[in-house]
Design goal:
Distance between the termini: 31 Å
Oligomer: single chain
Number of helices: 12
Largest sheet: 4 strands, antiparallel
Number of domains: 2
Number of strands: 4
Strand order of the largest sheet: 1-2-3-4
Amino acid sequence: MYKTVAAIIAVLVLAIGAGLYLWQQRKAVSPESVPPIAAPAATPPPAPAPEPEPAIKHPIDSLAVAEPPNKQSLPNLDRSDATVRATLTDWLGRKSVQSFLQLDDFVRHAVATVDNLGRSHAAPRLWPANPTPGRYTVAIVGDGTFATPGNAERYAPFVTFVEEVDSRRAVALYTQWYPLFQQAYEELGYPGKYFNDRLVEVVDLLISTPVPEGPLELKLTEVKGPIPVLRPWLRYEFADPKLESLPAGQKILLRMGPAHQKRLQAKLTEVRRHLTAQAPSR
């Protein structure tokens, strides 16, 4: 369809150019004027209209994927929780699912979180994953506040869980359930947009997150007003304005520590390869 539109636009441009050329010719040679000795140089035709970007950059139906675990008919989005819970529990194991995943309204929460990871804030209440146990701890060194190395260990079980997931089968299951994700994405306020394109875009964003060379310096977010702060460990932000201005997903990776960040970025690169049949450009 978009090639047809481009062709129509090109025809219109050429028609307008030809009309303008003929109008100029009629104006130059009127009945009262003397015919010119030499014909004027022909106006070169306008450049063809550029090919518009495709509406779908990464079509999900073009992927050659493995059979997903427990393949079954697609449920209604509003009644998909039972199917999601049964399928993921059977595949990943009840202990892992209970430890790491939040399955209530899983599809909608997954879609909202993916979209939010590429923005300035990703609300934890919408995450399809359980919060990491423990508190984010810091150490005072001189005049600075830095994240302690022990913070990274809190994320070790989750990172190991992610690494052990079969990426090929995960993408196969995602492909089977894709109409649900697409419906949830359109409900989120993106009619006519393609969720898999947004997913690949956010995955590329996470893969490109810079790996810090040293300890991350933090500071407490300023809170004004008489309301006491009951959980100050939730108020830390990066002292470097450049890091603090990064999208939410990149900041989450940074908080996990450089070793875990690299492991997750490697896993994301693997997943992307299955999603698009190609590795991300560097």
